[in-house]
Amino acid sequence: MATTPAPAEPKNRPPQERSVLRDAAFLRLWAGTTASGLATWALPFVLGLAVLQRELGAAGLGLVLAARTAGFLAAVAVGGVLADRHSRRAVVLWSALAAAAAAPLLAVGLGRSLLLMTAAAALAGAGQGACRPAFQALTAEVVDAGRRQQANAATTLAVRASTLAGPALTALLAAFTDVSTLLLGIGLLWLVAALLPGRGAAAGAPASPRPQRASLRAEFVDGIREARRHPWFLAGLGALTAVIALGYSATSVALPLISRDRYDTEWVLAAAMTAYTVGALGGALVTARFRPSSQGWAAFAGLAAYGFAPLSLMFPVHPAVVIGAYAVAGIGIELFNVPWFTATQREVAPDKLARVSSLDFLVSYGLAPVGLALIAPAIQAFGVTPVLGVCAAACFLVPAAAALVPTARHFSRPPARPAG
Prior knowledge:
Blueprint: H1 24-52, H2 58-85, H3 88-109, H4 114-142, H5 148-174, H6 179-195, H7 216-228, H8 231-261, H9 267-287, H10 295-304, H11 308-312, H12 319-347, H13 353-366, H14 368-382, H15 384-403
């Protein structure tokens, strides 16, 4: 009696892509990166608690945070060069250990020596700045190209979740312990960031050993040359800098004022910032799987969405409109960030990746304090509505202009034409 044969299995079935969340090497790196992000966020919050408890003055807080920013900017470029010269794992280790060592110094100086606290904050900022480009480059070593967007989304998701839950957790801990102990807890987070990540592959090592090292300056300039090879990167960096220096700075100054003066409550401030973080969490979840055909254009559209935040503050709208605008801005910023990091890891020469990443952090974060310093005088001179209007227009128009740059549509250089 004849029987119907079972259908044959296809011979060339593509292998199932293993989730990056099941990769032990990435999970160690993810936990270390998350710990460093949480420690970075927690320091200004904990120092703010010190001001509330009158262990640190407002002027002292400004000086300490300024020292941390200066340390970050001074170290981020050097850290990028060192991470391309040496083991990225070693750079993460020593820079995170430096930040960990700063925590007990801050605790000792609290209420006793503002000079010691300022020096310790500069050390903490230097450790933070040196490890950022090394973490970026180490991700490219640990995770294969096909799963890097998922890896970057998982990392930003963890950091955003920490900033959402962190204030409540820190306030709860503050009810049972003092600020010095919380500062020591920040040091423990940096120890986790230093010791937990494993060693990556040698993807970032130069193809052949150089007999003589160039100077740090020469190698950083070499990284700038690599960045200039990618027009989409320069355009994206310019757009990101404009949004941070103008849009983010304007809303940071204007939102507390408008929450107090227009709505007569601090609730709008808290709800808008929470909505921004929740939106960013949603954006990170979307980008873990979202692969638009024109990735660069989609990313620039997400970045431009930040313009809705200052736009919502220009008019006497219902508070729900402001909160919704901040949620949209949060979604958009991660629709840009995750593909941006992934494209940088994919397109930049592996032995120059840390230097190009350090250029990203140096420019975008470096100009943020300038924006913050100029926005308040501009509001006093011209009024809050005109300043917000200019900043909203910049958030919409600069990313749109960046999207017109060649290679920006896909965040990649066109393939080289065959000779002949």
